[in-house]
Design brief:
single chain, alpha+beta, three-stranded antiparallel beta sheet, two-stranded antiparallel sheet, elongated
């Protein structure tokens, strides 16, 4: 991916910790990360289609188009950017989410003539807590499949 948001600097500590977990738990974490990645992509694509958009109105190919304003998700015209939004997981320790389109970086960070849209960052921030929920849910499913008893203290 050309422009991605990744896990924080303590990635190696997270990787060491998850590698020390039993296989059942690691599998649950992987499933949780994948579920979160799918939800993030779906959310971003939906927001790019449906708005709200409050930017400049102009004509493209004979149709009216309302652009996105600073801080909003980019409004889809061709769908190229939307289709390029994806995620990738690396084992049970890392989830990368971003776009393969070159111009995604300009939309995310802005330029001297255009304010930042921060659409990838907004989605990542929105799903910050959801990733924990998804991991916990998927780990519990894996534990139930293996008929393992866990004592919560």
């Amino acid at each position: 991916m050309n422009f991605t948001l990744t896990t924080p600097r303590n990635f190696n500590r997270i990787k060491e910790f998850t590698n020390s977990l039993p296989q059942t738990i690691r599998l649950g974490v992987c499933h949780g990360l994948n579920e979160t990645g799918r939800e993030m992509v779906k959310h971003t694509r939906k927001k790019m289609r449906s708005g709200p958009f409050t930017g400049r109105t102009y004509r493209i190919r004979g149709r009216l188009h309302i652009a996105s304003a600073t801080g909003e998700y980019p409004h889809t015209i061709t769908g190229r950017l939307s289709r390029s939004i994806n995620y990738k997981t690396y084992g049970s320790a890392r989830l990368e989410y971003g776009s393969t389109e070159d111009y995604a970086k300009f939309l995310e960070e802005g330029t001297s003539k255009m304010g930042a849209r921060k659409f990838l960052f907004q989605t990542a921030k929105l799903f910050d807590k959801q990733v924990e929920v998804n991991i916990e849910k998927r780990v519990n499913i894996q534990i139930q499949k293996q008929n393992i008893t866990v004592n919560k203290t």
